[in-house]
């Protein structure tokens, strides 16, 4: 359960639908990260993620000291589609939430 307000809009994992999840490695690995893509009932997309001290979720805790962290990041529909493609999300999931065309 995570909630964040960005630009006056509330992003809440309890009230949104989780579309897909992607991760790298396992908790305990400094490079570990895990992200879940959500869509709100109003059609807004966001990623809820966490990671270790060598991931893009790292937080400085002092001089040359880092810890893991977490964040919610709003995304446009185009950014959410790109996230799905970059993380090899199943085509059936992408087709359900995004307009795709046959090649």
Can you offer a commentary on this structure?
With 103 residues, this protein is of the alpha+beta class. The protein has one domain. Helices cover 17% and strands 43% of the residues. It has a 4-stranded antiparallel sheet with strand order 3-4-5-8. It has a two-stranded antiparallel sheet with strand order 1-2. β6 and β7 form a beta hairpin. The termini are far apart. The mean pLDDT is 95.
Task: Identify the notable features of this structure and list them briefly.
four-stranded antiparallel β-sheet; 2 helices; alpha+beta; 103 residues; globular; single chain; 8 strands; two-stranded antiparallel ribbon
Give the terminus-to-terminus CA distance.
39 Å
Q: How many domains would you count in the coordinates?
A: 1
Determine the number of helices (DSSP H or I, runs of at least 4 residues).
Answer: 2
User: Nearest-angstrom radius of gyration?
Assistant: 15 Å
Strand proportion, as a percent range, falls in 35-45%
Content-based structural category? alpha+beta
Q: Could you state the order of secondary-structure elements as H and E?
A: EEEEEEEEHH
Residue-averaged pLDDT: 95
């Amino acid at each position: 359960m995570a909630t964040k307000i960005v630009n006056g809009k509330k992003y809440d994992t309890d009230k949104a639908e989780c579309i897909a999840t992607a991760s790298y490695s396992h908790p305990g690995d400094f490079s570990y990260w895990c992200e879940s893509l959500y869509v709100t009932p109003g059609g807004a997309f966001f990623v809820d993620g966490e990671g270790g001290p060598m991931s893009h979720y790292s937080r400085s805790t002092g001089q040359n000291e880092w810890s893991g962290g977490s964040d919610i990041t709003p995304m446009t529909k185009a950014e959410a589609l790109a996230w799905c493609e970059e993380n090899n999300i199943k085509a059936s999931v992408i087709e359900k939430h995004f307009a795709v065309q046959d090649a």
